[in-house]
Amino acid sequence: MISVEQHLTRILETVKVIRPFEQGVLDAQGCVLAEDVTARGSLPGFTNSAMDGYAVHAADVVGASAEHPVVLPVVNDIAAGNTNALSLAQGQTMRIMTGAPMPRGADAVVVVENTDGGVVKVAIRAASVVGQHVREVGEDVEEGVVVLRRGTLLGPGQIALLAASGVSRVRVVPRPRVVVISTGDELVEVGQKPGFGQIVDSNSVMLTAAVTSVGATPYRVGGVADDARTLMDTLEGQLVRADAIITTGGVSMGAFDTVKEVLSRVGTVQFDKVAMRPGMPQGFGVLGDDEVPVFTLPGNPVSALVSFHVFVAPALRAMAGRPEPSFPPGYVPAVAAESFRSVPGKMEFVRVILDDDRARLAGGQGSHMLGALAAADALAVIPPDVVEVDEGDSLECLPLLGRDGQ
Ligand SMILES: Nc1nc2c(c(=O)[nH]1)N[C@H]1C(S)=C(S)[C@@H](COP(=O)(O)OP(=O)(O)OC[C@H]3O[C@@H](n4cnc5c(N)ncnc54)[C@H](O)[C@@H]3O)O[C@H]1N2
Ligand code: MOO
């Protein structure tokens, strides 16, 4: 029996960051930059107005007030998108809209609310100062500076910055492509009615969703029968498009545990008992010339999802260039709302419902029990040396869903 940390360490020492690849900025969402990116142009690219109002020489409106407005002739209108380079003479004004280029000579904008809104001449009812409501060229980003560093995770804000500063394609670590295969003669496809002795292949849809939830790209193969030739052919066929492969089922002590039988003969997959519950029978290694990592998860659905969170998700993040700072990854603190027992010598992952920070059992803890799994918000992680959790004890929990249900 090996520990959870030992198994995870072997996995993280084996997987490699995927080779970077140039992508359009939108396709790069959720990916990590593989290069420093410099701005092709300045932001703003030209000095422009921050408000709707009137471009002025600030010196012309010194002392303007509601009681003593300054009246100026309006000599032009400048809308956003106006591409003419205009000049404003002293003693004049131009109507200007937010984002429109400032005319040369103007050094301030008086907001329309502080005027009578005139279009031929305008009464300005408030003084201004040089630079007021003006966005200077390059004040946000200067052309040629590094706007984003290698290693940055690209979200909507970063993608906007790239696009605005003239960058349409970037080298990123691509999303891992993950093939999901479930095994077992008892499986029927989702949507089909299982006969006696059969079950719906829920693992492959569950793990497909889990792969998506960590920002990787799943390819669901679905159920493969417990036949060594079929499984081997399937694995070989999938290797070409896979950065990683996940299988479920067929890894314990059964007489027809095909995954174990097949993968014991090829590649480097090593099968271990890991001191955890659920999820004890685990296999991991690499397969094929490209050394594709293969995770063989146990067939019990709760065991498979717990294994995904504990082993596969950190590996996929590392492959995507987003390694976790430490183990355990992303734990949140909670307090036990009730007492329960934990199995000695194994790290236990208890399905719990969190009310604020109070954790209560989500229901039956059998590794086949999808009802409690679906009711749970998190896995309370009970260390191997803890056999009794008392109400009020501190707990570390691994959230099952992100804030947006992913
Ligand atoms: N004699 C022993 N028996 C078992 C041991 C053991 O150490 N000695 N370990 C148990 C533990 S713990 C687990 S976990 C399971 C793991 O079994 P396998 O990975 O070999 O998986 P299967 O036997 O194929 O299936 C187990 C269980 O899960 C259901 N299943 C399988 N695939 C799916 C799927 N795609 N969707 C939904 N449900 C699935 C399957 O019907 C079984 O009920 O072994 C214990 N036995
Ligand atoms: O260790 Mo198995 O994964 O509980 O049911």
From TrEMBL:
<dbReference type="InterPro" id="IPR036425">
    <property type="entry name" value="MoaB/Mog-like_dom_sf"/>
</dbReference>
<keyword id="KW-0479">Metal-binding</keyword>
<dbReference type="InterPro" id="IPR036688">
    <property type="entry name" value="MoeA_C_domain_IV_sf"/>
</dbReference>
<keyword id="KW-0808">Transferase</keyword>
<dbReference type="Pfam" id="PF03454">
    <property type="entry name" value="MoeA_C"/>
</dbReference>
<dbReference type="InterPro" id="IPR038987">
    <property type="entry name" value="MoeA-like"/>
</dbReference>
<comment type="pathway">
    <text>Cofactor biosynthesis; molybdopterin biosynthesis.</text>
</comment>
<dbReference type="InterPro" id="IPR005110">
    <property type="entry name" value="MoeA_linker/N"/>
</dbReference>
<keyword id="KW-0460">Magnesium</keyword>
<keyword id="KW-0500">Molybdenum</keyword>
<dbReference type="InterPro" id="IPR036135">
    <property type="entry name" value="MoeA_linker/N_sf"/>
</dbReference>
<dbReference type="InterPro" id="IPR005111">
    <property type="entry name" value="MoeA_C_domain_IV"/>
</dbReference>
<feature type="domain" description="MoaB/Mog">
    <location>
        <begin position="179"/>
        <end position="318"/>
    </location>
</feature>
<dbReference type="Pfam" id="PF03453">
    <property type="entry name" value="MoeA_N"/>
</dbReference>
<dbReference type="InterPro" id="IPR001453">
    <property type="entry name" value="MoaB/Mog_dom"/>
</dbReference>
<keyword id="KW-0501">Molybdenum cofactor biosynthesis</keyword>
<protein>
    <recommendedName>
        <fullName>Molybdopterin molybdenumtransferase</fullName>
        <ecNumber>2.10.1.1</ecNumber>
    </recommendedName>
</protein>
<comment type="similarity">
    <text>Belongs to the MoeA family.</text>
</comment>
<dbReference type="Pfam" id="PF00994">
    <property type="entry name" value="MoCF_biosynth"/>
</dbReference>
<comment type="function">
    <text>Catalyzes the insertion of molybdate into adenylated molybdopterin with the concomitant release of AMP.</text>
</comment>
